[in-house]
Amino acid sequence: MLTLDDYRSVCDDYEFKLITQNDDIRLTAEAAAMEQIASYLRHRYDTDRAFAAVGPDRNSMLVQCAVNIALWLMIHERGGAESAERCRLSHTLYLGR
Q1: CA–CA separation, 93 and 71 (whole Å)
Q2: CB 61 within 8 A of CB 28
Q3: How far apart are CA 46 and CA 90, in angstroms?
Q4: Helix axes 23-41, 13-20, angle to 10 degrees
Q5: What span, in angstroms and rounded, lies between the C-alpha atoms of 5 and 2?
Q6: pLDDT for 11-38, tens place per residue?
Q7: How many Cβ atoms from other residues are within 10 Å of residue 64's Cβ?
Q8: Is the whole-model pTM more than 0.85?
Q9: pLDDT in tens, 44-91
Q10: How far is it, in rounded angstroms, from Cα 1 to Cα 89?
Q11: What is the DSSP string of 20-61?
Q12: Distance between CA 62 and CA 94 in Å, rounded?
């Protein structure tokens, strides 16, 4: 459901590379984000259909929520020294520039 372009609304290329680490971590975080969203919505909505939508049929709020959750999961996935910079980025991205 998510594309790399979806992340550009909340972070630049440098931040994206720092946060995502690699495709496996990103894809895992995206799957977890979509499952978290679906767990709240599937009893009322066809979440499989919503997540499968493409182009102008995509729900922009759903995409934005998935991006924010996936970024949060990636930021907090690892601890250590890098985590401090990730937390700073998380705070900056959450509050806006």
Answers
A1: 9
A2: no
A3: 30
A4: 90
A5: 8
A6: 888 888 888 878 998 999 999 999 999 9
A7: 13
A8: no
A9: 999 999 999 999 999 999 999 999 999 989 888 765 445 556 556 665
A10: 24
A11: H-SHHHHHHHHHHHHHHHHHHHTTTS-HHHHHH--GGGS-HH
A12: 16
Which tokens sit at 29? 């975080």
Two structure tokens written together for 14: 């440098």
* The pair of three-digit structure tokens given for residue 40, joined into one six-digit string: 């709240």
Q: What is d(CA 82, CA 33) in angstroms, rounded to the nearest whole number?
A: 22
Q: Chain-centre distance of CA 81, in angstroms?
A: 22
CB 29 within 8 A of CB 77: yes
